[in-house]
Amino acid sequence: MKLQPGRAAGRPTLEVLPWAEFPVNEGGLCRKGWTSTGLRGSRERLTTPLVRDRETGALAAATWDEALDLVAGRIAGIQDEHGKDGVAIFGGGGLTNEKAYQLGKFARVALGTSQIDYNGRWCMSSAASAGTRTFGVDRGLPFPLADVEQADLVLLVGSNMAETMPPAARHLDRCRDNGGKVVVIDPRVTSTAERADVVVQPVPGTDLVLALGLLHLVIAGGHVDTEYVESRTHGFQAVADSVAAWWPERVERVTGVSADELRALADLVVSTRRVMILTARGAEQHATGSDTVLAWLDLALALGLPGRPFAGYGCLTGQGNGQGGREHGQKNDQLPGYRMLVDPAAREHVAGVWGVDPDSLPGPGRSAYELLDALGTDAGPKALLVFGSNIVVSSPNATHVEDRLNSLDLLVVCDIVMSETAAMADVVLPVTQWAEETGTMTNLEGRVILRRQAVAPPRGVHSDLDVISGLAERLKAPITFSTDPEEVFEELGRASAGGKADYAGISYERIDAEQGVFWPCPSPAHPGTPRMFTERFAHPDGRARMHVVEHRGTAEPVDAEYPLHLTTGRILAQYQSGAQTRRITDLPDDGAFLEMHPVLAARLGIADGDPVTVSTRRGRLQAPARVVPTIRHDTVFAPFHWLGVNRLTNDALDPASRMPEFKVCAAAVEAQA
Ligand SMILES: Nc1nc2c(c(=O)[nH]1)N[C@H]1C(S)=C(S)[C@@H](COP(=O)(O)OP(=O)(O)OC[C@H]3O[C@@H](n4cnc5c(=O)[nH]c(N)nc54)[C@H](O)[C@@H]3O)O[C@H]1N2
Ligand SMILES: Nc1nc2c(c(=O)[nH]1)N[C@H]1C(S)=C(S)[C@@H](COP(=O)(O)OP(=O)(O)OC[C@H]3O[C@@H](n4cnc5c(=O)[nH]c(N)nc54)[C@H](O)[C@@H]3O)O[C@H]1N2
Ligand SMILES: [Mo]
């Protein structure tokens, strides 16, 4: 098998896109972006396939043919014994659209398995589920990011944008320069909060009640956009009835946000016209995450925001291809273009593009955590192939996940470095990274952008597309899997045609010429859709749905034994599981820490920098204390970039999105003796 570079291989990206004029980041990168080339040619890069020696237990170099023959042979054996679903796939939101699409097709056609899901389940799934229910479609931002600059008021609900999307935070600064106001809702006063006009610090996991309380005040004050609600939505009356009982003092008891603060916030919201509500992981990564987003969407609709210029609701997407990665088939229930596997017409269409019998396609499989939880059990898969995720570090209740991975007959990991998950694998396959391959990504605005290959990959390294194709061939798949990204993209366009995320009119040429193209874009003559919902929503009758949601509270309330809320998140200098950023020497890597308020620290006899033990019902972690006045007294925070933090987190899942409750569980902290 040979690596096939994209057609414009070697052409410097600068000639393709005038970056400084690119409206999303204006050529700006964050610290991780500037240093990311550090992994190129680094000794940390994997450059040869590795196969675990059964006798010594060590990973040893193998040729690509040996490794792929072995993987295909073991897959065939496992499927003979345990059925097609004996083999599972775990994908990633960092993969290009071409890879994500090809991975979904590989699972359903070459493996015939229903068992595929991906790390986006940890990421935007709650917002995706809520957006689909309310609007009939899920697109992170239904408007360009630069619209933020023209808003009168931006509400950031659980986003630390200044650390997690620094180039995007410039738009926020300009919004304020233009006279707009910014509200940050976060249990911590983050660097994003430092740029805000108003900071609201709720108890973790109570954003839902905050939204209900605001809607209560909007209705009580007579500020509902009645004309909009009547002409563009369904379900308002039931929602209005349900929030009647959420008067400010009751909201205060749940959220810790005072009744006065809530009233002031409501006054601000109703006195401004262009209000933008943006949620991120702080509000979404909860077992009530999808209901929380529904509640904020109800508020947005009652105010008549979605579709109004420079206003509305958006979800701040996570990974590089967090948006595209969730559209084209690596989700357990999904076919390309946001089509659903259970829909006979969708199966017919996509099977037609693929050249297979629709009846041969499996049905929906398990969601990400349920899949990991089932590995190696009697009813669960016996083999797992991982593409683009470091699951032992980033999954909730990680000790359990590690146990499940250890119980597998076969673990295959495709990665660029020896991640903690790769280190557990039976077979490790070294793949190309961003600059070394061509492919498209869809950003948080629904803008499809093209990243051309700029440099040659290290010798011995192949693309994920090569791996998929090589395995499919060895598994005697009924169809072939192209390794040429542009060819795959053209096929993706046909497969997505007529779907909600319709790419049929998008080509590599157009992306280059137009600074990206926004989906839906059903034909080459269509201009693409930067702003959605201006006239209608994506439900068949064009109206949005409002939803009654109830306050359920967090899955694991605090008690005498575990009296503190533990929340987790990110810091500027590290990325996700740290697999890439910890290997870049220019980035500070101080390890995990536990942030706590001086009042709590004093009560526990802890000084800044002291080693502490934080424990939950699932595990313990030792880390230095970081004593800061910016966090709530009842809450502690740890970044999840280092192994061990997720041994503490709760695997309670949201019933609709299957999102785990990363953002809150009950914890105890003590000084180390
Ligand atoms: N530096 C850096 N940037 C990144 C990443 C990274 O790993 N490092 N990862 C990327 C990815 S994949 C994603 S998904 C995004 C995530 O981007 P963000 O969502 O901005 O990041 P987080 O730090 O996970 O969470 C944001 C904030 O939520 C707060 N929070 C915790 N619990 C609650 C709660 O119950 N309610 C509210 N309102 N807030 C709460 C935390 O204190 C935190 O400041 O970042 C992307 N950018
Ligand atoms: N406690 C806690 N846990 C969390 C979160 C949280 O806020 N708190 N956030 C969650 C969120 S939002 C996310 S998105 C996840 C992310 O967590 P992970 O899914 O673990 O994400 P990464 O660390 O980016 O892992 C990606 C892996 O893919 C490799 N890789 C990079 N490019 C490629 C490629 O092109 N092909 C292949 N095959 N591999 C590649 C990288 O080297 C790395 O090992 O973590 C989740 N976990
Ligand atoms: Mo994410």
Would you write up a description of this structure?
With 673 residues, the chain is α/β, with parallel strands linked by helices. 56% of the residues are buried. The longest helix is centred in the N-terminal third of the chain and has 19 residues, at 64-82. The chain has 22 helices and 25 strands. A hairpin with a 4-residue loop joins strand 16 (439-442) and strand 17 (447-451). It is globular. The chain has a seven-stranded mixed sheet, covered by helices on one side. It has a six-stranded mixed sheet with strand order 21-23-22-25-20-24. A five-stranded parallel sheet has the order 7-6-5-9-10, sandwiched between helices. Helix 4 crosses helix 20, helix 5 (125-135) packs across helix 14 (289-302) and helix 8 runs antiparallel to helix 11. The protein has three domains: 15-28 and 124-315, Dimethylsulfoxide Reductase, domain 2 (3-Layer(aba) Sandwich), CATH 3.40.228; 42-120 and 327-483, 3-Layer(aba) Sandwich (Rossmann fold), CATH 3.40.50; 564-671, Beta Barrel (Barwin-like endoglucanases). The structure holds ligand MGD (2 copies) and molybdenum atom. One ligand MGD is lined by residues 123, 157-161, 163-165, 185-188, 190, 204-205, 207, 280-283, 318-319, 567, 569-570, 572, 574-576, 637, 663-664. Residues 45-474 form the Molybdopterin oxidoreductase domain. Residues 564-666 form the Molybdopterin dinucleotide-binding domain.
